[in-house]
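new request in #modeling-help
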Amino acid sequence: MDFVRRIIALMFKEFIMILKDPKSRFVIIGPPLIQFFVFGYAATYDLKNVRYAVFDESRTAESRQLLSRLSGSENFELTKTLLAEKEIDVVINREKTRLVIHIGPDFSRNLHVGRTATVQVIVDGRNSNVALIALGYIGNIVEQYNRELVKKGVVSMNGPGVELVDRAWFNANLQSRWFIVSALGGLISMVVVMILTSLSVAREREFGTFDQLLVTPFNPAEILIGKSLPGMVFGLMDALLFSAGAVYWFGVPFRGTIGALVLALGCFILTIVGVGLLVSSVSMTMQQALLGSFVFMMPSVILSGFATPIENMPHWLQVGTLLNPLRHVIVALRDIFLEGADASMIWHQLWPLVLMACFTLPLAGWMFRHRSQ
Amino acid sequence: MTPRDLFFMRLRGILRKEVLQILRDPSSIALAIVLPLVLLFIFGYGLSLDAENVPIAIVLKDNGSAARDLGARFDLSPYFKTIHLTSMAQAMDLLNQRRVDGIVHLQSDFSSGLFTRNQSPVQVIVNGIDANRARLIQGYTRGVLQKWTELRQARGEPVVGPSVKVSQRIWFNEAAVSRNFLVPGLITLIMTLIGILLTALVVAREWERGTMEAILVTPIRRVDLLLGKMLPYFILGMLGMGLSVVVGTTLFHVPFRGSIVALFILSALFMLASLGFGLLISAAIRVQFVAAQISIVAGFLPAFFLSGLVFDLDSTPRFIQIVSHVVPARYFVSISHTLFMAGDIWPVLLPNALALAVMAVLFTGLAFRKITKRLEG
């Protein structure tokens, strides 16, 4: 009973510490919310309005038909019509356009005599991903145009050919926003929890109030629990809020169960609280604590599969990412949102998280006691 | 003593204090030297958008030579690691368990259909959860098909290619290696970390610890204080930048086609803008805990999401594009992409440099105004 009372007293103190200062109160909810919306819109691999220029030497009905398919697509935006070949250099180098479509003078002649007509596409490779995706879109458009040519009888299909039939499962329109936004709750709540907990002990140390805390009747385990609760509460609150935002604002489908969502986020935040307290217990100043949490957060974000696929990493690094809590929760979140997983199906992601929490929390407690002497 | 001598004397004093403070706490040195190295390794190896050895299932229900020939083209492609199966149900199971990322399906009448109907479908199913990867896989399959058609034509076998063909040229990055654009972006991130994160705490710390009062009674002026806070971190940041460039070009073979002088001048501008921003936060907030949060939310995260570092800005909604103009990292990402891959293209570099210069002056000026030499803010 005493134990519970002491924990509650400590918890009160911690909550008051965070909530008494209006700036710090705002920091808990304001910036995470802004981040969620801004990043929800900004973090996308789907291309829209790719600026392009056209250099059409053919100027025939056929070339215009092909180009109108491009200008009609919402993925592309025509910015310039070029009149000379040397202009291609200028517009690409100066980033006036992302790509140039060059149709040679013999385009329609080739088509009519049954030879292959070539469309040259010159892309700015400074962002290689945009270059490849844009080329993919153009490939699709040209393929449709080819089919139309056969249908309209402009060219005849006088030999065997193959036709590619594409389909994508779970996400038929290939919207990358679903993939990113479903994981955003985990990422942003990690930042909030990490900062709250890593600065908590370091601040008391820097202010010298840590010694006062040590002479109170609390034992180190109780202090640790009291320090971790605000992070738990605010982190889980933020993460659930963002999950709701993903569904109701960004229209991401929610195919799994709420129980699984709460379980996955709860286990994850517990692990992060452990890491945060560990960083806090080894830091003597707030600057060190902040740097420490960055040393943890940067690699976690990059090696989590949030922005780039884990499968693209070398094998040894893929194995290393198994130690990354963010990786597990992101896989779990995507399973729950997009593939309809329930609590039993995310077990493979849950046990590593629980295991890590079982390791980091006691270690933080141990460090805490040993650094304070 | 002339006023100039006095100025330098004061500056030397405050600089000495700051440098000692940095040296006594090795964590900030670690940030400038160790963190760039660690991040470069992780970024260089970990952050890649190029799919290789994508596991796919090939379901050949047809034993004809054309079908087997096409299947072999997939086996030979460096982009794919193929598993040959005979039934579609098996393949779908593997796709559901995520053991494969895609299925290529040739029906039993593929080879015969080529000749009787003149058109045979190649069915490709991909897992669309990661839309970007799915799109790249679709692109790779299209490439394999095109190669196969060209090969058959070259061997004189009857096959009709598409009437219109795309011939592509990717400038500055022929092989479309994503590392070549991610590593230059990383330099932006490292400099942001040093410029904003470290400096966000340095003035707030003085207020919180009460040492600001000690500084207030010295003859040190605001200019001296500002310079003293900026210079050491400026040097740390430039060190981190230099280190990243050396490691990026030697270890990861990222090309560097611009000039070192341009890189030095432009990154100095970016460093000043970041430092000014960090000091502004620090001087305006005066509480380390909140300053730390703000520096992450307003400094670090926008540098990752709103700079064009990974996600393309042109494709975002208008209001995001407008917001991105106040993020200094946006201009430097553009500068470093151009310097590394395209060279000294001044029509691109100059407008970005101008924006950075304006920001450097603006932020430093505001920070100067906010560093008051009075107790009541």
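bot summary: Chain A touches chain B through 110 residues (CB under 8 Å).
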